[in-house]
């Protein structure tokens, strides 16, 4: 069977001005690779009729599937529909049903629909429409001789939903995709990237199918196992064998797979054990709570938290004693322990975490930016409190403190204390 | 003077597999834009001789300057030098001086140089060599008829250093670049993208220097004014004139410039007016507090918040009455008003915002996912509470609720009530 060749075109002058990176191309490339569709080219063109037209011409000359993002908005710079209509020599007309959906979208949000939004209901003759539940512009699939064009919005969340809900299933069915490429990510926490890589270096170097690739992100690291086979079942079997070898070496640090976040796993384990969680946040300012609440089903385990950003709030809301604050300061082990204890008591939960420190850039109470005290509290006999020195970078320090707390919770729940 | 057209080619199969995003193209695009060089195309090709060759062919046919990143490594997949040699029909030979520099690089780092590294000292006849102080592969500038090819490593830090230290100065001098391009972004909130564009449509269409481009992001919209002139001073003067015209039309929605976020502006205005803020968050789960705390200096205005995720927390921590919760539900106007009032009283601030709703995906109390009640509260006579229907998307709904609260706060502070 001839190998399917795909191409991705990003439309938008903001891409050529360097204002944003073409992350859509990356995401789509990976999604197609997982379907066994090879991407051979990316193009980026600006909001210019002639150049978009030529990009379609070039793509058609060499690719079976062309995915286009951008240029579906309501403004005069948005030309993708018009150019595709010209290029494929098919009429562009205003579709009643698409217009009705667009009007309903605005009505539901109590927003006024502008005159120029109407062009987003323009549809190409014989196109397959792809609904956009997360935005205004529907996508379209247009078959032009031997090339399939798919046009989608440039907004990443809208494009991804459209790809996952409609485009990928369409491609899979239409092209009866045979070879599959399957990837599985194994996620680790509590071990550094270089140490992990050293533990499995020989496995990474030896393997050709599956391949193993390390990926690092903030405060955690993953290994991506990628296998290619004729069936998903066979690919998964290859992956399982590889995964078993990896876990035999470094499994004690593995917490989850694929897109499971450490927060997902922590919430799930709290739920499994029937435990509840509260928090008291100072420098993290709600970011830890946000991470927990982002997990669907968090309400089973998370009762709430107190963002005691000021000392006044620490005393009045949390009940941290003035004596503690005066004797040791807000940024201290004593204070962070009291914060956690109070949060646990006030919210009546099984465990609580607390954060206090110096986000920066200014130092505070003699502590430099990046200093964080963290506490995980169960009861008077079972708690953990430590000081960390993160970086002089407000954002990174706050994020790393949150990640560290999730790491502590994870290992706490793994042990018998949970 | 004829407008210089540049093109950027990213070489690397990992880009086509979606393993990394083409951030090099973004960075280079912005760097060139600042020099007054217009980028009209991006291409990405894999590690394949034929396709790289054709990408050079295409680029030469339409661009004056072609910048290529990637494919300069020591492996067999690294083909850029070889292909450029073939394409420009110039010999590739091993340069003694380049080899000596390479050997010195490895020696300095106590690393062994592999046999395959030697090809990184291969040089194209008549090329201008660009030293790479941050890595192994030198770059090259090759002039082929009317097109200037610049080949550089794909490693971002190495490429950027090479661009800043050698390539940009070379381009500036060679092409006697006179012009500078300066951009300024004007940021708006409280008006939709299509409506804003309609208000300034004629200005967008008329203007050629500066140009005005609309950019939308979640819950807000911006206009980017880009001017080209011989000096930065002159460019800024053009921008100011254009900005004045825009603000005369839609200035009432403008809140900031360039990278100022709405949270930055809200915190600054609260500080200017000597006002303090608290919050009570349910579905937003700390995300609003996080947005405020992310602004340096937030401690001047933000005392803290209560993330009352459970009804128990709403009653015990916030003091929302059980009667209200039983009569109207947690997701109601009555409850959100009481939450804000209680947060304001307990934290003793001038204003408070509160959020309650249904993040989803499940409906709650008969309200569908995306339903949010928001309240901005000053006192019994001065408060605002409304219901919104956002989208059935947990993340987006929570983010939009936060953005809407910031919008309300902004306009509240703009009026005399602040």
Automatic annotation (TrEMBL), chains A, B:
CDD domains noted in UniProt: cinA
Annotated Pfam families: CinA (PF02464), CinA_KH (PF18146), MoCF_biosynth (PF00994)
MoaB/Mog domain sequence ranges: 7-173
Cited SUPFAM superfamilies: CinA-like, Molybdenum cofactor biosynthesis proteins
InterPro entries: CinA, CinA-like_C, CinA_C, CinA_KH, Competence-induced_CinA, MoaB/Mog-like_dom_sf, MoaB/Mog_dom
Origin: domain of life: Bacteria
Family note: Belongs to the CinA family.
PANTHER family: NICOTINAMIDE-NUCLEOTIDE AMIDOHYDROLASE PNCC (PTHR13939), NMN AMIDOHYDROLASE-LIKE PROTEIN YFAY (PTHR13939:SF0)
Protein name: Putative competence-damage inducible protein
Organism from which the protein derives: Halolactibacillus halophilus
């Amino acid at each position: 069977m001839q190998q399917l060749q795909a191409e991705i075109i990003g439309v938008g002058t903001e891409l050529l001005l360097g204002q944003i990176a073409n992350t859509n191309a990356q995401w789509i490339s990976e999604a197609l690779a997982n379907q066994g569709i090879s991407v051979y080219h990316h193009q980026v063109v600006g909001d210019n009729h002639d150049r978009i037209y030529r990009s379609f011409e070039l793509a058609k000359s060499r690719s079976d599937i062309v995915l286009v993002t951008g240029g579906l908005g309501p403004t005069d710079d948005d030309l993708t529909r018009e150019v595709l209509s010209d290029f494929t020599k098919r009429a562009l007309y205003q579709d009643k049903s698409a217009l009705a959906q667009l009007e309903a979208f605005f009505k539901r949000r109590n927003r006024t629909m502008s005159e120029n939004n109407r062009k987003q209901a323009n549809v190409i003759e014989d196109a397959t429409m792809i609904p956009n539940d997360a935005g205004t512009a529907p996508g379209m699939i247009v078959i032009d001789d031997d090339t399939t064009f798919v046009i989608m919005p440039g907004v990443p969340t809208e494009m991804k939903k459209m790809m996952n809900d409609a485009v990928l299933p369409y491609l899979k069915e239409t092209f009866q995709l045979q070879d599959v490429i399957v990837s599985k990510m194994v996620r680790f926490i509590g071990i550094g990237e270089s140490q992990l890589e050293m533990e499995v270096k020989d496995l990474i170097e030896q393997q050709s199918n599956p391949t193993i690739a390390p990926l690092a992100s903030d405060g955690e690291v993953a290994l991506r196992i990628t296998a290619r086979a004729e069936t998903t079942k066979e690919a998964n079997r290859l992956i399982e064998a590889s995964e078993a070898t990896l876990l035999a070496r470094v499994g004690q640090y593995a917490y989850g797979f694929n897109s499971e976040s450490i927060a997902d796993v922590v919430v799930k384990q709290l739920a499994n054990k029937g435990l509840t969680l509260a928090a008291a946040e100072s420098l993290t300012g709600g970011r830890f709570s946000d991470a927990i609440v982002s997990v669907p089903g968090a309400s089973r385990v998370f009762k709430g938290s107190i963002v005691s950003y000021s000392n006044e709030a620490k005393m009045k809301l949390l009940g941290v004693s003035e004596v503690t604050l005066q004797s040791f300061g807000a940024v201290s082990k004593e204070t962070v322990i009291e914060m956690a204890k109070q949060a646990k008591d006030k919210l009546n939960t099984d465990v609580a975490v607390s954060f206090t420190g110096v986000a920066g850039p200014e130092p505070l109470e003699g502590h430099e930016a990046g200093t964080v005290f963290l506490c995980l509290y169960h009861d008077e006999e079972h708690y953990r409190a430590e000081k960390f020195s993160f970086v002089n970078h407000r954002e990174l320090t706050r994020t790393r403190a949150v990640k560290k707390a999730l790491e502590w919770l994870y290992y706490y729940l793994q042990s018998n204390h949970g």
